[in-house]
UniProtKB/TrEMBL annotation:
Domain NAD-dependent epimerase/dehydratase, residue spans: 6-207
InterPro entries xrefs: Epimerase_deHydtase, NAD(P)-bd_dom_sf
Gene3D superfamilies: NAD(P)-binding Rossmann-like Domain
Database matches in Pfam families: Epimerase
SUPFAM superfamilies per record: NAD(P)-binding Rossmann-fold domains
Domain of life according to the entry: Bacteria
The organism's taxonomic lineage, starting at the top: Bacteria, Bacillati, Actinomycetota, Actinomycetes, Streptosporangiales
Name of the protein in its database record: Nucleoside-diphosphate-sugar epimerase
Amino acid sequence: MALHVILGAGTTGTATARLLADSGDRVRLVSRRGSGPDHPAIERVAADAGDTDRLTELARGADTLVNCAMPPYDRWPELWPPLAASVLTAAERTGAGYVMLGNLYGYGPVDGPFTEDLPMRPTTAKGGVRAKMWEDALAAHEAGRARVTEVRASDFVGAGAGSLFNFLVTASVLAGEPAVYPGSVAVPHAWSYTGDVARALAAAALDDRSWGRAWHVPSASEASVREVAVRLAEVTDSPAPRVEAMTDDEFSAFAAENPFLAEVAEMLYLYDRPCRVDSTDAERILGLKPTSLDDALTEMAGAPLSV
């Protein structure tokens, strides 16, 4: 049986662990608290992935090292670089294939669909962090020091999804209350179902064709925020939703009270223009297909979050 070491026991890390374990492989799920599902093929380990020597020990003999870890959003520039360097070093030392969970930030603003061959042109601090992580990993791959790939997702939907929509809109729609959202609520936007993200990570870990490039998760939908709210209300028999874009004053008030929302400010370009994601290669080569938006929203309704 192959061994996969997964970093991070959040929604996506746990789902990926289950998929790989259910396929007949062994999984070592590493998180600071040693949490995770109770499964005979999943070993839960409490460790700090920033401890390179400890992580190297845990990854020794593994086929893949899958990074689903996520530092606090408001501390990315401080915490991501040393963590990313630790994981990449462990992959280089052990020969484990390195599968990164990424997003669209590194591309910067894009006119037209996001495609995997676009260059990294970030215009924000967090985008710069993500771009540097990929550039360092790709350099290691091209130098023959590691095998690397990255799976890139857009905003999450699904149970426990850590997305602005789930933080700011889901509970309000279910309660029949008005909601506000930063950025436009009327432009098309790609949504990644957490289960599809996990399937993409597992597929990349198991397919030798994945190395040396990035892959986009097939989108559950490219509906606007308002359209997603309407579908959420319809699949849960909730009242017709009222969702409006935040005014500048509303956003400033929210951001003053919450460091998470304050950090969203530099990423608002992703919400003020159409965000379309091309996943042709992932569907054709890795055999991935998107879950329906209705199914993703039905699941998310059972686990709304608040920021």
